[in-house]
Amino acid sequence: MLLSSKNATRANRRGLFGSASAGSGGDSAAYALFMCGGDVLARYCLACVSDARDNIMQLCPRQKTAYVWYDLCMLRYSDRPIVGRLDVSVHNIMYRPENHSRPEAFMTWVGISLANLANRLKDGGGGGSSKFATRETRFDSRETIYTLGQCTPDLSNADCEECITKAKQGLTAPAIGCRSMLPSCYVRYEMYPFYYNSLAAAPAASVPPPPPPAHILGSSSSSKVAIVATIAPFCGVMFTIAIICLVRTRRRAKQRNGISPSADVNGISSESCQYDFTTIQAITNDFSCIIGQGGYGFVYKWLHVPRVCNAWRIFCEV
Hints:
Layout: E1 17-22, E2 30-36, H1 42-59, E3 65-70, E4 73-78, E5 92-95, H2 103-122, E6 132-138, E7 144-151, H3 157-169, E8 178-182, E9 185-190, H4 233-256, H5 277-283, E10 290-294, E11 297-300, E12 311-317
Parallel strand pairs: 5-11
Antiparallel strand pairs: 1-2, 2-4, 3-4, 3-12, 5-8, 6-7, 7-9, 8-9, 10-11
């Protein structure tokens, strides 16, 4: 009932943040809070929150405290007041198992980019009181590090700074992408532009190419997954042309064999990426992509998929 109330879906002009409470206190009280990315339009924000609400109530039906992180939003509820209160009790980390070829230099510039990002968030971010900011730092002449950070807008600047500091502590592996999530804040970096809104974006900082390291560290995981990398526009055009040629060749082969080129393949359609929770559960083999658990929480691996399709983690506190 709490998450179905109008208060729970009340958002600001961009649909970034909302909270609600019910009950008169004590054991009967309930509190809920959601936050969407500062680059997410309101209609996508509310759709994400609606999905999060349904899934968290399905998977945590009797728990008094629960958190869910999605690619576009996060949602949490508790039997204790949560608005305006820093919470770093749960820390989930997801990183790409592919390491950068120059790990030491790369992580140095990741640290610089995250430090600049933290400074922007400490002052409230680039979007007024939203506590949302992005940063672009040129690693070398060919690669740019894209970082994003956000705190729940109800936090003070000091609490936001403390939460971001905690989130950065988990980003130690030289992975080409990582996400660090806590109930009160979130940090992410990638080697490709993954955010949509340029409102809070800072221009890419020009930095000299870092010196090559004395040695190359080994991969932090033996697990290998397909990673979609950002490539130069020329390579993208050539790749597209190659795909078109391949599709035409296969269509001609199918026509020679009496197969219609428009025949359905196992009912698969590329018209929509709006997967329901059951489908995501089946695709991920019941979320079996957990690599392990360290001092900073669960560590995940993931494939690059569109942000609107990506579900991360649901945590139910007993």
